[in-house]
């Protein structure tokens, strides 16, 4: 027992053995060099990844934002009663007899009087002037008149879509040089468009119909929208959610909490992991064989698409659910059993609530995967179907033919007119917004509920 | 060991609550409990002591069939509770565990409110007919576990937010809330500081008036302080079982003596 106060004030210090700590020896230098080299590799890898992401996003945004804007022509159209309702009795059946062609003269004369009013000089005949408008304009006018027969005889202001070439010209995609061999538009028409634009009646504006509208045929890219296929995707997701979540969770709970550990459950486990790695097109062909050829469910229907995607999503949900059940500490189960809860009570009162955020996260990620899946839809005919009418009612939503967002995008990207190409990019933006939102929700859920015990 | 004189020794023998005869436990091929015979008396604290890995927890978990949850575990022999074989086919382990409660080594409150932790057992067993009755049970149990004063103002706070010692007493409150007849405790104080340990020990001594308590402990002093009967396990065998006073002052088996004097274990 030495008393500290008796120690000499300035005890001699020992000398460092080997080298000083202030100088790095060769070994340390080598190790440090290796470490900083490794850090550089890592930073470079992340840099490349980020660069790719930035290129991808800017590419998509520059190519796709155009789809959300469309060029419109403002026109005041006189709904001439002698053309639309010859008998003058406002009978809806008689009005419906006038085909879309019957509306063309109305638009042409409206355009003519507009030109006169604005004092625009042009050599174009009224019929050629009318060609700058979309073919959808006549149909739009007809739908309006059928919906509002009382307006016949009055003059109503409209905002008509212009055709895709003119729209492309407004967006800079189409130039005077590029239309040299194009029969559907002439340089004179472009001059005319310039004049209308300068007068302020032809302008670009946000086009909600792209988001909410239906697909259109090859001749009318300017009228095509992704809305109906979005509904198709929605109905498919409802099917996936309603089937995959309960089946997946029930299967996982049984396997994780109740099933005995034996050869059979091992085999099942391995096969579930294998299923998660099966290419989605295989599920597509299975769906074609079972749901359509054998069970005779309707082709192209979201119900069938949903069933196929359910098969594809189940393994993902089962795997993530089992992982989150496993993450619940066994002491919680012991605690519940220890106060006399049955196994089922222990699972449903204690384990499941703790695993729920993980289960939801897995489900959302599975749904997001399913939402972006295209290949299996190819085989059950949801690609190539022109979704031109929104389904009327819930049942039709599940059973009538429809497309899905990724299928619609694929379809647009195949079509010849470059205006469709723009819409494909626009569709990708919408799809990505959905996926990013879903994944963000999943991440937030996981953050919010992480480790509560 | 002066503490040993603190608890009055009850020499008169009481009714037998649990009788284990010829119990063997296997984990797969491992023979973890060999041929154990033990009588656990009613309204008595019985301590299980022995070196690590000797099978104390294993045997304790046999008494309320918690071993059923381990797939590879196999129990042979009979264990009678009130003269009825708890491993009989007709016995539902869930019903058994309501009678034989358990407190675990690591405090494991549910990640729910303090109130819900205690109320859970009575709820699933339908012990309370009304909310106020349930409130009474919760308060009584928390009082019995000597934690009422600390938590009475925050019954809605999560049980996991309490300190380790408070959590363990909460778990004890949760166990007594279902009115068990036997309370099994596996090293209930191993995560606690001396003050909390003293509180739990006091509590165990009080619980003795109503239940029969079986406690596994690594602390000789604790066994001596709280128990009336002591069982010494070694390598899966029950080496010696008897009055605590006798085991600690005058053990019959040399292995017991070496263990309690600190030479093996
Ligand atoms: N789940 C299990 N699976 C396989 N073997 C086990 C299992 N639990 C315990 N054992 C074995 O059974 C024997 C007894 O274990 P037990 O946990 O009962 O010991 P213990 O006396 O409680 O030890 P400690 O004092 O360290 O808690 C040990 O050899 C252990 O390896
Ligand atoms: Mg133990």
Q: Can you describe what's shown?
A:
- The complex is a heterodimer of chains A (about 450) and B (about 260).
- Chain A is about 65% helix and about 5% strand.
- Chain A has about 450 residues and is mainly alpha-helical.
- Chain A folds into two domains: about 70-205, no CATH class; about 225-450, Orthogonal Bundle (MetI-like fold).
- In chain A, helix 11 crosses helix 13 (about 300-325).
- By secondary structure, chain B is α/β, with parallel strands linked by helices.
- Chain B has helices at about 55-60, 95-100, 115-125, 130-145, 150, 165-175, 195-205, 220-225, 245-250, 255-260; strands spanning about 15-25, 30-40, 45-50, 75-80, 85, 100-105, 180-185, 210-215, 230-235, 235-245.
- In chain B, the strands form two sheets. A six-stranded mixed beta sheet of chain B has the order 6-7-8-3-9-10, with helices on both faces.
- Chain B is globular, with a radius of gyration of 18 Å.
- Residues about 1-10 of chain B have low confidence and may be disordered.
- Chains A and B meet through helix 14 and helix 15 of A and helix 2, strand 6, helix 3 and helix 6 of B.
- Adenosine-5'-triphosphate binds near residues 27, 32 and 54 of chain B.
- Chain A: InterPro entries: DUF3333, MetI-like, MetI-like_sf, Phosphate_PstA.
- Chain A: It is found in: Cell inner membrane; Cell membrane.
Strand order of the largest sheet of chain A: 2-1-3
Number of helices of chain B: 10
| CATH class wording of the largest domain in chain A | Mainly Alpha
The value of Rg of chain B in angstroms is 18 Å
Biggest sheet details of chain B: 6 strands, mixed
Q: Look at the structure and give the CATH class of the domain at 14-107 and 183-260 in chain B.
A: Alpha Beta
For the record, give the distance between the C-alpha atoms at the N and C termini of chain A, rounded to a whole number: 48 Å
Helix percentage of chain A: 55-70%
CATH-level-2 architecture of the domain at 14-107 and 183-260 in chain B: 3-Layer(aba) Sandwich
CATH fold descriptor of the domain at 14-107 and 183-260 in chain B: Rossmann fold
Give the biggest sheet of chain A. 3 strands, antiparallel
């Amino acid at each position: 027992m030495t008393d500290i106060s008796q120690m000499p004030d300035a005890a001699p210090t020992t000398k460092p053995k080997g080298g000083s700590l202030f100088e790095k020896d060769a070994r340390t230098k080598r190790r440090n060099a290796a470490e900083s080299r490794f850090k550089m590799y890592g930073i470079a890898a992340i840099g490349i990844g980020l660069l790719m992401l930035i290129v991808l996003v800017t590419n998509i945004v520059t190519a796709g934002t155009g789809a959300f804007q469309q060029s419109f022509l403002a026109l005041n159209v006189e709904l001439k009663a002698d053309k639309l309702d010859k008998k003058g009795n406002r009978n809806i059946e008689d009005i419906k007899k006038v085909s879309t062609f019957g509306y063309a003269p109305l638009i042409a004369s409206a355009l003519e009087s507009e030109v006169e009013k604005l004092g625009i000089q042009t050599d174009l005949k009224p019929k050629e002037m009318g060609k700058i408008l979309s073919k959808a304009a006549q149909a739009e006018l007809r739908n309006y008149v059928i919906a509002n027969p009382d307006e016949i005889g009055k003059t109503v202001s409209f905002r008509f879509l212009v055709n895709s070439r003119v729209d492309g010209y407004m967006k800079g995609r189409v130039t005077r040089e590029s239309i040299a061999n194009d029969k559907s538009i002439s340089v004179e028409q472009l001059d005319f468009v310039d004049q209308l634009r300068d007068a302020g009646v032809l302008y670009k504006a946000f086009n909600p119909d792209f988001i909410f509208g239906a697909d259109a045929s090859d001749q009318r890219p300017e009228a095509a929208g992704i809305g109906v296929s979005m509904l198709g995707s929605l109905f498919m997701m409802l099917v996936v959610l309603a089937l995959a979540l309960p089946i997946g969770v029930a299967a996982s709970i049984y396997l994780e909490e109740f099933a005995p550990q034996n050869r059979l459950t091992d085999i099942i486990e391995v096969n579930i992991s294998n299923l998660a790695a099966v290419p989605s097109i295989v599920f597509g062909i299975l769906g074609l064989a079972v749901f359509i050829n054998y069970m005779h469910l309707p082709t192209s229907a979201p119900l069938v698409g949903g069933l196929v995607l359910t098969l594809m999503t189940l393994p993902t949900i089962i795997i993530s659910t089992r992982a989150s059940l496993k993450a619940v500490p066994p002491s919680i189960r012991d605690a519940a059993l220890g106060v006399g809860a049955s196994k089922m009570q222990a699972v449903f009162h204690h384990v499941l609530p703790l695993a729920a955020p993980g289960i939801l996260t897995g489900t959302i990620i599975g749904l997001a995967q399913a939402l972006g899946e295209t290949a299996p839809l190819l085989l059950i005919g949801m690609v190539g179907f022109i979704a031109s009418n929104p389904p009327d009612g819930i049942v039709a939503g599940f059973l009538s033919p429809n497309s899905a967002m990724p299928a619609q995008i694929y379809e647009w990207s195949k079509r010849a007119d470059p205006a469709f190409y723009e819409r494909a990019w626009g569709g990708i933006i919408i799809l990505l917004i959905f996926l990013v939102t879903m994944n963000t929700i999943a991440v937030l859920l996981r953050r919010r509920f992480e480790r509560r015990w | 060991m002066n503490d040993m004189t603190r608890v009055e020794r009850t020499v008169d023998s009481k009714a037998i609550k649990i009788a284990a005869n010829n119990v063997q436990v296997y984990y797969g091929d491992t023979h973890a409990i060999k041929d154990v015979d033990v009588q656990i008396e009613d309204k008595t604290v019985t301590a299980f002591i022995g070196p690590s890995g000797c099978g104390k927890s294993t045997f304790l978990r046999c008494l309320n069939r918690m071993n059923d949850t381990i797939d590879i575990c196999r129990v042979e022999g009979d264990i009678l509770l009130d003269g009825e074989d708890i491993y009989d086919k007709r016995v539902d382990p869930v019903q058994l565990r309501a009678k034989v409660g358990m407190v675990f080594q690591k405090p494991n409150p549910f990640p729910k409110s303090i109130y819900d932790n205690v109320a859970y057992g009575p709820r699933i067993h339908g012990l309370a007919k009304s909310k106020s009755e349930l409130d009474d049970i919760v308060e009584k149990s928390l009082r019995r576990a000597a934690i009422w004063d600390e938590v009475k103002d925050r019954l809605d706070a999560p049980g996991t937010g309490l300190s380790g010692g408070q959590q363990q007493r909460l778990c004890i409150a949760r166990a007594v809330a279902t009115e068990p007849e036997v309370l099994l405790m596996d090293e209930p104080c191993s995560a606690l500081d001396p003050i909390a340990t003293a509180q739990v020990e006091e509590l165990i001594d009080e619980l003795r008036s109503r239940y029969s308590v079986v406690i596994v402990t690594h602390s000789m002093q604790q066994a001596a302080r709280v128990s009336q009967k002591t069982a010494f396990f070694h390598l899966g065998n029950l080496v010696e079982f008897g009055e605590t006073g006798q085991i600690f002052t005058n053990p019959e088996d040399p292995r017991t003596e070496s263990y309690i004097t600190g030479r093996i274990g």
